[in-house]
Design goal:
Chain lengths: 169, 299
């Protein structure tokens, strides 16, 4: 856990050890790319970039522990030119992380993977499939697994509560 | 290690609906007293706030790869979030009722990205089967705005939002249309949006008294230019409806084994690549059952 005593903006703690451990798990995509941070004056540096679940980890090319991680929720991925793409987060859309690939094709693959790497994206897909299967068959496909009631799978309001659930808003 | 903390904190407080919220007691790391905190679960991230109306979280626990167990504690209704890595911290929490504890344990143990991915893949597979069985004839009717859409099983074209409501500049597209895309159909439909170029599909269809809303447009991570960050939830909510229909159980089918992911181990429920959805699901169910048994025995 990181806890830095600070006088101004508070730092949000997170479970760093576990996140570093996650960075070592099998990834969807991993490659050496050029990467430039969002701050003015940042330059492109060669990094090992690795996509694991909804995190994008980046490493110095010869190091085992990542320099950093980007949680890929609420972000926007854009093609910048034929071989580069950027990631920006909704709360600070002007700050872009730039990634330079070796080919147009590679760039396209990365964009594709990152777009699909968010939990929220998957949730929408799930809702779509659930709705569609129901439309076509008249049956709720989650029923047979007993998970129809789970909040995360709900069609409408994400806070669908079952009776007896006391931990609600 | 750095993390894009500001944006992560924004995810905690943005208007995407959380999967679960509530007060829990959390044991401190240095100060080992239990502190009451407001918890917000979104996806595989468990945020905690000092107060329910705090504007920013104190911290977040990334839940990917965790297991949730009951724990021995002087506190009643206690459980622990554990990780499989060396020197990992154990997060001890306590709820204020049996029901709440069970609910949290269930929610947290199924919060992983991998679990969601498995469920999605399973439904995708089921939908393909249905499509193929039906000869592809009924595809497209529910999918507003795209005429002549080929069968879902043809994956050459990932659906592109016709509205161009993707927020990128006109020369770039923020949705990929790579033909080598992994089989994940991007659902799209019209939806009410201030951007309005999106066509509107009429309301929600009702069947058996349940409103099944039209699927939302999926853009790059749910981003809509200038609008709310939650495309999925706007215009699709029908608060009065129940989303669960009771059907007679038909018996569980074991799904065919999906392709194994490179490097994944075979049998761990929390590891990517567990090959059988049905089995994985049983594991999760069993975990909850075990916890329930443990608690009953400890009474």
């Amino acid at each position: 856990m990181i806890s830095i005593p600070c006088v101004s903006a508070s730092v949000m703690r997170f479970n760093e050890k576990e996140l570093v451990f996650l960075s070592r798990q099998p990834s969807e995509m991993a490659a050496e790319l050029g990467m430039r941070g969002p701050k003015k004056g940042d330059v492109v540096k060669r990094r090992l970039v690795k996509l694991v679940v909804n995190f994008l980890f980046y490493f110095r090319t010869d190091e085992e522990e990542p320099i950093g991680a980007l949680l890929l929720e609420q972000c926007k991925v854009e093609r910048e030119n034929s071989q580069s793409f950027s990631i920006a987060f909704l709360d600070e859309a002007e700050r872009k992380y730039l990634f330079e690939c070796d080919s147009e094709e590679q760039c396209g693959e990365w964009i594709d993977c990152i777009v699909k790497a968010s939990y929220e994206f998957m949730r929408k897909n799930l809702i779509f499939y659930r709705t569609e299967i129901h439309r076509l068959t008249g049956k709720d496909p989650l029923e047979q697994y007993g998970i129809s009631d789970e909040t995360r799978f709900q069609i409408s309001n994400g806070l669908q509560l079952t009776p007896g659930d006391t931990s609600s808003l | 290690m750095k993390l894009n903390e500001r944006s992560v904190a924004h995810y905690a407080t943005c208007d995407s609906p959380p999967d679960k919220t509530g007060f829990l007691f959390k044991k401190g790391e240095r100060n080992t007293a239990y502190h009451r905190r407001w918890f917000v679960l979104k996806g595989n991230m468990l945020f905690y706030f000092e107060e329910r109306d705090s504007r920013e979280p104190i911290g977040v626990i990334v839940l990917e790869g965790c297991t949730v167990e009951l724990c021995e504690s002087a506190e009643e209704f206690a459980f622990a979030v554990k990780f499989d890595c060396a020197k990992a911290r154990v997060y001890k929490m306590a709820s204020d009722s049996q029901v709440a504890m069970e609910s949290w344990v269930k929610a947290l143990s199924r919060a992983s990205f991998d679990y969601m991915r498995l469920v999605v893949k399973e439904l995708e597979r089921q939908l393909e089967e249905i499509q193929e069985a039906a000869g592809g004839s009924c595809v497209g009717a529910a999918v507003g705005g795209m005429q002549g859409r080929p069968k879902l099983s043809r994956r050459n074209q990932v659906a592109r939002s016709r509205s161009g409501a993707s927020s990128s500049s006109s020369s770039s597209s923020s949705l990929s249309s790579s033909s080598s895309a992994p089989p994940m159909l991007v659902p799209f439909s019209a939806q009410k949006s201030s951007q309005d170029e999106v066509q509107l599909v009429s309301g929600c269809s009702k069947e058996n008294g349940v409103a099944w809303s039209k699927p939302p447009v999926a853009l790059a991570n749910g981003f809509v230019e200038g609008g709310s960050s939650c495309v999925a939830w706007e215009g699709c909510a029908d608060p009065g409806s129940s989303t669960v229909i009771g059907y007679g159980a038909e018996g569980v089918r074991a799904p065919p084994v999906p392709p194994r992911r490179k490097g994944a181990s075979l049998e761990s429920p929390v590891c990517p690549g567990t090959v059988c959805f049905s089995k994985l699901h049983d594991w999760y169910g069993k975990e909850v059952e075990d916890l329930r048994m443990q608690w009953l025995q400890s009474q």
